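Worked example 2:
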Amino acid sequence: MDSKMIGSRIAKIRKDKNMSQAQLAQLLFISPQAVGKWERGESIPDIITFNRLAEIFEVDLNYFSEDFRATNDETALKMNIDSNSDIEQTRQEAENLSRLSEREMLMNFSGSNLLNSDFAGVTAHKRKFNGSALRGSDFAGADLTGSSFTGSDVSEANFNGTNLTDCTFSANTLTNASFDKTILVRTEFSASGLAEAKFTNTELIEVKLTKTDLRKTVFENCIFNGVDFKYSDLRGLSFDGQTFINVKFDKTALNEATFNGATLKNVSFLPTYALTNKYYRAIKTICFDGATMDKLTYATLKGMGADLSKVAVI
């Protein structure tokens, strides 16, 4: 395929539609730089993207073929319409494309094959990525407020700097996913695999981690504010040096977990069952050396038999 020819056709029809590279990129959930590379002939879209381009520009897929020859601009943009009212409606829709960046578009990416896709920097509120293949996709710096990921493979995905406010992750594979300086507000993770996923330099605000295996998850330099770890497995996890405010470790497995040098304020540890000898033994395996905690948290843990000999009370 002639990448230069394809690039010139994308550029021409985009300009005919009075659309900027950034506006086209937003519709495709890619970066404006990717559109620029197409138009310069440095790369070409994949087949799925070609179909999306044909839909956006309202042209036949053959428009991007080397065999396609248009006699004039009107022929190149011709659509299957049968009445004057259809023509007027089509023109109006073309004019509205220039304002798409200001409109909220609810697009469903469920069941899509989007391996290694580039979503970096896009604004995509309330999108659905359910049952999708998203391994290795780049969401860095994107605003995904209110979006949902259910039953998807999101392993090795990059969420660094991403706004995940009010997003839900349910029954996903998030192995080796990266969350550095990510905005996590009221984000929900449930029944998801987070092995080797990394949360670094991040404040988790009113986040829920329910029925989630976190034994191999990495948390570094994080602040947990109003977080609920209900029914999750945290055995052997290191929370050293991190801050916990109004956090609930209710009905969680915390055997061998460490909170060395951590700060705990108004933190609850509600056992799954009654305080049996087995639970007391489990509490004693948690290490709080060098931690600082308020009096109520201290009293709760002391009553459960935790070793607080090296804890400072504030």
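The first strand starts at residue 148 and ends at 150. Residues 3-102 form a domain with the 434 Repressor (Amino-terminal Domain) fold (CATH 1.10.260.40).
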